[in-house]
Amino acid sequence: MSKKISIIGLGLIGGSMALDLKKSGFASEIIGTDKSKLHEQQALELGIADKILPLEEAVQSSGLVILSTPVDVSLRLLPYILDILPSDSIVMDVGSTKSSLMEKVKAHPNRKSYVPSHPMAGTEYSGPTAAFHGLFKDKVAIICNSEDSFPKAVNLVSELYFHLGSRLILMDSESHDEHVGYVSHLSHAISYALAVAVLEKEKDDSAIFNLASGGFASTVRLAKSSVDMWLPIFEQNSKHILPIINTYLDKLNLFKSYLEKGETEKLSDFIKEANRIKTKLEKK
Predict the structure, then answer these.
(1) Whole-prediction pTM value?
(2) CATH T-level fold of 176-282
(3) Residues 77-132 pLDDT 10s
(4) Distance in angstroms (rounded) separating the CA atoms of residues 101 and 228
(5) From CA 227, how far away is CA 198, in angstroms rounded?
(6) Helix runs in 90-226, H state only
(7) Which CATH architecture is the domain 3-172 placed in?
(8) Quick check: 94 and 14 in contact, CB under 8 A?
């Protein structure tokens, strides 16, 4: 049975979900709300939302609420949403960190109506105009601590990801935050650092544009990601990000040392060891 769904936060993730949930028939109607009036207007024009309502009305008018805001905003909004959530409705979030959010609402009387989730999909672009069909197809989606939610709530969110074409994984929140710190958050931190380093060394913007090849463009692509989204992710998951940054810096310094000392064989072995990542990624 199709559902009336409210999406809070009409950016890339929320907007792309809306498009595919309508297309698949999972959603009968999409109600949107966003702090940006421009985003709300764009969502209507692009067919992402069928109508726009204030937050409270949107929550109380739907059977499923999707919280798709930056993680610091979700920390503030989720308790309020649970306060006003109708007894037969469910709320899920799609944020990149989980432990702090779950800690925030662990004692809330409506906690079981909440399903923490994280679709491992995205681009460096943001806002409703960045949304597109198929963003989640063949991607992994994670549901955290499913035992703390109503089975019917977990089943509904699982069905949602099925309609998006995602592969579902169950995981506890601490493991989630640790692993995404390695495979997602570190990548963004490296990309930001690389972009700043190149901008500092290369003052001639035209040279960057003219000489940038596919390797540089793909490595620095994530540096275009929104500060509003990524700053709170780094802050909330610093416990897991800082150790992996230290490990990364150790390896980068090792690479630098081999290069400085002309230790060709060690540098070759280092690169060959890095090549093993290919076999890991091909198993996905």
Answers:
(1) 0.89
(2) 6-phosphogluconate dehydrogenase C-terminal fold (1.10.3660)
(3) 999 999 999 999 999 999 999 999 999 999 999 999 999 999 999 888 899 999 99
(4) 17
(5) 19
(6) 99-105, 151-164, 173-180, 186-201, 205-211, 214-220
(7) 3-Layer(aba) Sandwich (3.40)
(8) yes
